[in-house]
Design a protein that fits this description.
- By secondary structure, the chain is of the alpha/beta class.
- Helix content is about 30%, strand content about 20%.
- α2 runs parallel beside α3, α3 crosses α12 and α9 packs antiparallel against α12.
Length: about 550
């Protein structure tokens, strides 16, 4: 009997190990355990971090997938998924946890498609933006009679009606003239939003996200901006308020990618409603003010759509496997959509990054920008630039980035093999160096002294980053991060031929014609020349010059 029990336990453990995706509803503590379980199983390609806390103090956790977690690699796009914004709409939360398990397992199995996705993309997954609301809904379960129970946060606020309303400004600007991108926030915006909203806004402002999806429930449709109609209409009144963005065709394509890769969304008839192709313009469905997807588009470079994924807001546990199989391919295909259009760097004649360069596409009244590492390159080194978060015995993988290899003469290269090259960047590594020899201070110039042998290094130095190569990283301490990004830009576009212009203050604009194909994004770098204003002499200056010449001439 004991032999049979042993065999049974062996088979049970084998089955458990072979079934990476879990199909159950997970409360907050279980969610946290799942995220760190995935991180422990894939420590080299994942990072768990928090963007802030809820009203009741629960972390808003994010799981990152990247071949260099914690680091923005130049020309590698950032994409995000956000789930459970409404606490009682729970399928998105479980799908994102299942996606996390799936990505880790398939990477370990050397699935070529997942390997390429992780190596070429920086993926951020936030399973729950409203953990407080979820706990209220989960305490009632799927049989709760209260349709809205747990929808709002602990302060009773709908988080998808809580972002600054920028639509009013863009509609005005489209009519009378004004900025068409990165609309500014009110000075008092932080006091006008909830803690969860504030944390997410600061998060999306800190990373140059290119593509995003917000997962909801209660319908089955892919919803794209604008959500707010020019003529405010309420749900169920009339569907004649279609309010497209300048990128309407692109947004329709993104929505269709998800809908047609989904098991049944594209059929259109779901939950007693009909949406052609399984997609809808948000405002043509019902008008929504202060929503997150419009905010992403109007305040950042990020293109976000909203995915309504289930008729039941809180589906039963036995339905989760079917829902996962219906969404798995769509979740992967949507992530892959970030690799389209154009991308590149905007530099001056000396290969320096140009801050806040604007990329405009003729015929599309919505621009994107590139930025620089403001804290390090513009304001110098500070204690917040780096956080050494490693135990003394852990080996490190340290990478030194410079603008150009030709500028590294004053900074001796450590004895190591170059591991990665990107446009105007060279990465070199120091392997298996115990962190006990690293400076105790987190100031960047101390790390520079360690790497370069002195505190005098060329100003071409961008930053120094490290990550653990051990599975024993303390999860309570944040990984090393840098502030800002690297001056690269990304512009999602459909296949076609475009006229693209790069502009920056103090530089002559440059315009190129680009043909975008259906495959990989086109690399389009811009090198702008400084604008040298012509100095015109005033009449007084002319007279002074004539007087000087007459005095200095021989008599």
């Amino acid at each position: 009997m004991s032999g049979l029990l042993s065999v049974f336990l062996h088979l049970f453990l084998l089955f458990t190990l072979a079934a990476p995706v879990t199909f159950r509803h997970r409360r907050y503590d279980d969610l946290v355990r799942t995220l760190y379980k995935v991180h422990n199983e894939c420590p080299y390609i994942t990072r768990v971090y928090s963007v802030g806390r809820s009203v009741k103090g629960r972390h808003l956790y994010v799981l990152e997938f990247s071949d260099y977690p914690g680091i923005h690699e130049p020309l590698e796009p950032e994409v995000k998924y956000v789930g459970n914004m409404h606490g009682n709409e729970v399928l998105g939360r479980e799908l994102l946890l299942q996606l996390s398990e799936f990505l880790c397992e398939e990477f370990r199995n050397a699935n070529p498609r997942i390997l390429r996705l992780v190596q070429d993309t920086r993926i951020h997954i936030m399973p729950s933006m409203n953990p407080d609301g979820y706990e209220v809904a989960a305490a009632q379960g799927p049989d709760a009679s209260g349709y809205l129970l747990g929808r709002n946060n602990a302060n009773g606020v709908d988080l998808n009606r809580n972002f600054p309303d920028l639509n009013t400004y863009i509609y005005y600007n489209e009519k009378y003239g004004g900025p068409n991108h990165h609309l500014p926030l009110p000075d008092n915006w932080k006091s006008q939003v909830e803690p969860e909203t504030r944390a997410v806004i600061q998060w999306i402002r800190s990373l140059n996200f290119v593509l995003s999806a917000n997962l909801h429930g209660g319908a089955v449709v892919a919803n794209y901006p604008y959500d707010k109609s020019l003529e405010h209409r309420f749900r169920g009144y009339r569907r004649t308020a279609n309010t497209p963005t300048p990128d309407d065709k692109l947004f329709q394509k993104l929505a269709k990618v998800y809908s047609y890769a989904h098991g049944w969304m594209h059929h259109g008839w779901n939950c007693g409603d009909y949406f052609p192709d399984g997609i809808t313009n948000g405002a043509s469905w019902y008008s929504l003010s202060k929503g997150m997807q419009d905010f992403n588009y109007l305040h950042t470079n990020c293109f976000e759509i909203t995915l309504e994924l289930s008729c039941d807001k809180f589906p039963r546990q036995e339905e989760l496997q079917r829902e996962w199989l219906g969404n798995r391919e769509a979740l992967i295909q949507f992530l892959e959509q970030v690799h389209q259009g154009i991308k590149g760097m905007v530099l001056d004649e000396n290969n320096n990054y140009l801050p806040e360069a604007v990329i405009s596409v003729s015929g599309i009244n919505h621009d994107v920008t590139s930025e620089v590492m403001e804290d390090i390159l513009k304001t110098g080194f500070s204690t917040s630039d780096l956080q050494w978060s490693f135990s003394p015995a852990l080996p490190l993988h340290v990478r030194l980035y410079t603008y150009n290899t030709a500028e590294t003469a004053g900074c001796p290269t450590p004895a190591a093999t170059p591991v990665r090259q990107v446009v105007h960047h060279t990465a070199v590594s120091l392997l298996q160096r115990p962190s006990s020899v690293l400076p105790q201070s987190s100031q960047l110039h101390k790390a520079v002294h360690f790497l370069c042998g002195s505190s005098v290094c060329p100003r071409s130095l961008c930053f120094c980053l490290a990550k653990s190569s051990s599975r024993q990283l303390n999860p309570k301490v944040p990984m090393l991060t840098s502030s800002g990004d690297h001056g690269d830009y990304f512009r999602l576009l459909l296949p076609g031929t475009y006229t693209v212009t790069a502009t920056a203050p103090g530089f002559d604009p440059k315009t190129v014609t680009v043909t975008v194909g259906p495959g990989e994004p086109k690399l389009v770098n811009f090198q702008l020349k400084s604008s040298i204003p012509q100095v015109t002499e005033s009449p007084a200056q002319h007279l002074e010059a004539d007087s000087y010449q007459s005095k200095s001439s021989p008599g």
